[in-house]
């Protein structure tokens, strides 16, 4: 055997010599046939394959690919087939597979895939797939394949069902895994055609193919653009819904149910609940989906066997996605998919599932904290805590030390990830360590800081200091881009929710604000943030949060260095006065010929989110006037008193509600008491008359005193 092999190698060496020294095409062709025969037989090791390349390089295969004249008596594609065999041989070397001479052959490979295939050219197809697979494994390869049209070629090859179409699908799956967004941006119609075929096969299949397709289909569900925007996409979604309804309504083994749940979760991530039709059938399907997800979570997490949990993490994470949709749909009031009875049943079932999640998280060991599955479990619990505040209160309180410690560990150890993309929920593989657990816990913490026991636990675990640090970081993320702040929705939402938590602490734990030094750092940031934020119309809700929080904290931290007659403090209060003073205007009253007070146009779209903050801010400003002697002067500079007097004089008193009158009076009384110039301006603008007209008794009395 050894001598045969040695003989084969010596023959190959002679052939390579002939190839180098050949005087004519027939000599070269004869030698080449022997070389390619050895290559096809797979007899060559990496060293010998490299020797072949060193002997002939890319020049000779390039000539073969472009030659249109086959040797006498040979098939038309003979030279092209030989050239492809050599390139497939070279591509087994990763260094050569990424060479520009291979990459510039991608259009040729594509053409061969979509050309009609006769029985004699199957070896060419095999070689093309070998080349494409090797190119995809290189660093530059996937980008080159996408930009040079391989996605559409693979789609056509798969849809044609010709020789090797199963390999076309495998390569497509690989490309979508690496470059999904780019593939869909460039080749959406072709990919939709493949999805259409797959969804059709999925609906019609009555055997195990149906469950195999459950594994394949998620790769063809794009997060963007949404399938619901396209009629063909909607048809695909409807077929997938019907196919899943058939599966999940049947008795299934675990190996059959798991892929179906993962496919459903993938559809939910991409399209929300829009792929589920309204009506009785759709609501039953959604209720069944969430029910099955809850059962899966309980079965896996209530009595966790470490080995069993390890194998089920992917499907349980998919179940979390379905349960989060269940929470959203139970809360949905406009065009709800679920009936009230279904909502109540699901809330009870989900509560049991969250009991299992809490139980599981209480068993987590320190060395497991970097597992993305722990992150997914904390994230879904955060979604529950954000919406359902009354159930599992005792269990959540007992888990709070873990949640704070976990969020703190991720925040301190990683790059805190307001600026990082979050890993997709359905995949727990290779996502690295996700960082921003706090983002998902903030809404729940906001509810909990309004209650004594959970608030005390959060304070004792150091949550306020952590939240201050987090706020400072998220502000940096928001303002880090040119022309900052930029509209980063999740970052801005996190900042707004953190403000809500701090407002709760200001009201319920003022001593904490006074003694914890991190709140002085937070106050310093708020002073600088508001003047920067307020002029930007897109950030009014965040500005309202920062203005109100800053005004309320200022009353507690009045003696701190950061507020002691500093320019930044004056700039902040100037901006806060602008925010409060510009919220209302006079406009035509539809019910009469006069004018009525109304929310200013710039505030109108955000007023539902900020009106409570505005009233709270007015109270806080009134309380700050006696504490900061320079505040009345800031009000005078803003000409608020003149503008407010004009507003109240022009509008119909009936259009100004009692709450608004009370808010205005609170500020006006403190200004009149603290500053003679303010009092004089109010009086000189008929303040006594409109105070009487609006029933501002406290202001009337204050103005009448000498």
UniProtKB/TrEMBL annotation:
GO terms for biological process: neuron projection development; regulation of neuronal synaptic plasticity. InterPro entries: Neurochondrin. GO terms for cellular component: dendrite. It holds the Pfam family Neurochondrin. Belongs to the neurochondrin family. This is Neurochondrin. It comes from Limosa lapponica baueri.
């Amino acid at each position: 055997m050894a001598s045969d092999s040695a003989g084969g190698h010596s023959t190959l060496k002679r052939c390579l010599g002939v190839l180098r020294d050949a005087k004519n095409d027939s000599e070269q062709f004869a030698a080449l046939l022997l070389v390619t025969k050895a290559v096809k037989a797979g007899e060559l090791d990496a060293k010998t394959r490299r020797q072949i390349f060193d002997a002939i390089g890319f020049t000779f295969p390039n000539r073969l690919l472009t030659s249109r004249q086959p040797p006498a008596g040979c098939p038309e594609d003979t030279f092209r087939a030989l050239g492809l065999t050599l390139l497939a041989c070279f591509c087994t070397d990763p260094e050569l597979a990424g060479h520009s001479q291979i990459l510039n052959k991608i259009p040729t490979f594509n053409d061969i895939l979509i050309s009609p295939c006769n029985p004699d050219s199957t070896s060419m197809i095999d070689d093309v797939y070998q080349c494409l697979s090797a190119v995809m494994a290189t660093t530059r390869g996937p980008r080159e394949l996408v930009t040079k049209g391989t996605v559409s070629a693979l789609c056509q090859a798969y849809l044609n069902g010709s020789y090797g179409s199963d390999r076309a699908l495998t390569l497509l799956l690989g490309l979508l895994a690496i470059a999904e967004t780019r593939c869909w941006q460039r080749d959406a119609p072709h990919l939709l055609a493949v999805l259409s075929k797959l969804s059709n096969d999925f609906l019609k299949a009555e055997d195990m193919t149906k469950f195999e397709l459950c594994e394949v289909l998620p790769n063809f569900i794009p997060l963007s653009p949404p399938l619901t925007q396209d009629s063909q996409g909607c048809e695909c979604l409807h077929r997938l819904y019907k196919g899943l309804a058939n599966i999940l309504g049947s008795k299934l083994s675990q190996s059959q149910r798991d892929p179906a749940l993962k496919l459903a979760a993938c559809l939910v991530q991409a399209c929300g609940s829009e792929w589920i039709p309204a009506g009785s059938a759709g609501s039953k399907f959604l209720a069944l989906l969430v029910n099955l997800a809850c059962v899966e979570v309980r079965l896996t997490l209530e009595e966790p066997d470490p080995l069993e949990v390890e194998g089920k993490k992917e499907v349980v994470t998919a179940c979390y996605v379905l349960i989060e949709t269940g929470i959203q749909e139970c809360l949905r009031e406009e065009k709800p998919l679920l009936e009230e009875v279904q909502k109540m049943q699901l809330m009870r079932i989900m509560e049991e599932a969250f009991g299992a999640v809490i139980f599981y998280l209480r068993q987590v060991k320190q060395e497991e904290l970097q597992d993305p599955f722990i992150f997914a479990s904390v994230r879904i619990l955060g979604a529950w805590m954000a919406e359902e505040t009354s159930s599992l209160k005792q269990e959540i309180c007992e888990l709070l030390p873990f949640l704070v410690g976990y969020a703190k560990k991720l925040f301190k150890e990683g790059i805190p990830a307001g600026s990082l993309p979050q890993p997709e929920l359905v995949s727990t593989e290779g996502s690295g360590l996700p960082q921003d657990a706090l983002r998902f816990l903030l809404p729940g913490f906001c509810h909990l800081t309004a209650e004594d026991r959970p608030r005390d636990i959060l304070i004792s675990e150091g949550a306020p200091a952590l939240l201050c640090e987090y706020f400072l970081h998220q502000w940096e993320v928001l303002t880090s881009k040119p022309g900052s702040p930029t509209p980063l929705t999740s970052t801005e939402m996190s900042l707004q929710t953190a403000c809500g938590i701090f407002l709760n602490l200001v009201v319920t734990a003022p001593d904490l604000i006074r003694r914890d030094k991190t709140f002085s750092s937070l106050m310093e940031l708020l002073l600088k943030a508001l003047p920067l934020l307020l002029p930007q119309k897109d950030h009014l809700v965040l500005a309202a949060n920062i203005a109100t929080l800053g005004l309320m904290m200022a009353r507690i931290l009045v003696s701190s260095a950061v507020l002691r007659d500093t320019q930044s403090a004056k700039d902040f209060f100037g901006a806060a006065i602008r925010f409060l003073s510009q919220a209302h205007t006079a406009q035509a009253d539809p019910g009469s010929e006069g004018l009525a007070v109304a929310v200013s146009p710039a505030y109108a779209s955000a007023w539902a989110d900020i009106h409570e903050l505005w009233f709270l801010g007015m109270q806080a400003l009134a309380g700050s006037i006696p504490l900061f002697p320079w505040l009345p002067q800031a009000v005078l500079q803003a000409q608020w008193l003149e503008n407010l007097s004009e507003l109240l004089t022009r509008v119909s008193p009936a259009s100004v509600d009692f709450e608004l009158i009370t808010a205005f009076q609170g500020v006006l009384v403190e200004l009149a008491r603290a500053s003679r110039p303010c009092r004089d301006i109010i009086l000189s603008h008929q303040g006594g008359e409109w105070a009487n007209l609006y029933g501002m008794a406290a202001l009337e009395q204050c103005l009448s005193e000498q």
